[in-house]
């Protein structure tokens, strides 16, 4: 195991997962990724709220309060390590079970927390990203829409394609050709002074930073924002593009195929509001 990754299993430092585990066998579980600043978990309540909703959707016992206790223990440890910025992942699996898809009658969830340091200053807006169009099409399942479950093969393939193309991210389309998201984030387009973002009814993740942009950052700047179906024609002709996720905050886009963007005034203004939210964030 890499020395710069710290791991806890059910609140105890460890380096191995007891087997069998339904998270490994079937992807039976979910996860949250939080940004830590000097051991402080940013926007933690938004993540814990989404965790609780996901546990309910997957009919897992509500272990969110236990996960929060473990989170506090881990954050205290990270302070002692002196990592200015770190990525923390909480993974909850259904734990052990008999062979077969059906969930066991008695479930004891496992809570795995991993933390690794980040090398960049998250108070600085990330460099503009180059995107590629993923070859695969994102599947649609309204029942699981928004749930950050462990089945991420589509994102793995899309991210691998981006790396092979020496790009920063992949754009994912659904089977009707509509733009959905990037592999690890939610998309926003600036069109005629209005912010557009694809709807989340059938497949993408309900990102915590997406919610922050919609509910707080955009209103603070007086920006009109709405969910709208976005095809590639709209994407290529828009004034500005950026995406959001928990580790990068807001990241502008500089290119996708033959389309390119050179200035990012809306993303920059929103990022400055984002930093103000970080400064006032109590969790």
Give short descriptive properties of this protein.
283 residues, alpha+beta, D-amino Acid Aminotransferase, Chain A, domain 1, D-amino Acid Aminotransferase, Chain A, domain 2, 2 domains, 9-stranded mixed sheet, 6-stranded antiparallel sheet, 15 strands, 30% helix, globular, Class-IV_PLP-Dep_Aminotrnsfr, EC 4.1.3.38, lyase
Quickly describe the structure.
The chain has 283 residues and is of the alpha+beta class. It has helices at 22-26, 44-57, 64-81, 153-164, 208-220, 232-237, 265-280; strands at 6-9, 12-13, 29-37, 40-41, 85-93, 110-117, 129-138, 169-174, 179-182, 186-191, 194-197, 225-227, 240-245, 249-256, 259-260.
Per CATH, the superfamily of the largest domain is D-amino Acid Aminotransferase, subunit A, domain 2
| Mean pLDDT across every amino acid position | 94
Indicate the CATH class of the largest domain. Answer: Alpha Beta
What is the percent of helical residues? Answer: 25-40%
Task: Look up the CATH topology of the largest domain.
Answer: D-amino Acid Aminotransferase, Chain A, domain 2
| Count, helices | 7
Rg calculated over all Cα atoms: 19 Å
Shape: globular
What fraction strand?
25-35%
Distance between the termini: 30 Å
Enzyme class: lyase
Pfam families: Aminotran_4
GO molecular function: 4-amino-4-deoxychorismate lyase activity
Family: Belongs to the class-IV pyridoxal-phosphate-dependent aminotransferase family.
């Amino acid at each position: 195991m890499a020395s710069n990754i710290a791991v806890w299993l059910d609140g105890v430092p460890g380096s191995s997962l007891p087997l069998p585990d339904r998270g490994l066998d079937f992807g039976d579980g979910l996860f949250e990724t939080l940004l830590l600043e000097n051991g402080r978990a940013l926007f933690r309540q938004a993540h814990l709220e989404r965790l609780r909703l996901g546990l309910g959707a997957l009919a897992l016992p509500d272990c969110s309060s236990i996960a929060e206790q473990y989170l506090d223990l881990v954050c205290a440890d990270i302070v002692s390590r002196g990592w200015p910025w770190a990525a923390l992942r909480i993974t909850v699996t259904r734990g052990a079970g008999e062979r077969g898809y059906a969930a066991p009658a008695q479930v004891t969830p496992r809570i795995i927390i991993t933390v690794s340091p980040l090398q960049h200053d998250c108070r600085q807006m990330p460099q503009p990203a180059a995107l590629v169009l993923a070859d695969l099409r994102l599947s649609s399942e309204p029942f699981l829409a928004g749930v950050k479950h462990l089945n991420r093969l589509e994102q793995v393939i899309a991210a691998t394609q981006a790396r092979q193309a020496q790009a920063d991210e992949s754009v994912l389309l659904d089977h009707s050709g509509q733009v959905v998201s990037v592999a690890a984030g939610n998309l926003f387009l600036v069109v005629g002074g209005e912010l557009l973002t694809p709807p989340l009814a059938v497949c993408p993740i309900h990102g915590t930073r997406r919610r922050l942009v919609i509910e707080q950052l955009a209103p603070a700047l007086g920006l009109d924002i709405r969910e709208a179906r976005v095809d590639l024609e709209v994407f290529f002709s828009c004034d500005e593009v950026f995406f959001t996720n928990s580790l990068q905050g807001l990241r502008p886009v500089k290119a996708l195929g033959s389309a390119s963007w050179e200035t990012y005034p809306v993303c920059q203004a929103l990022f400055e509001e984002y930093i103000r939210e970080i400064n006032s964030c109590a969790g």
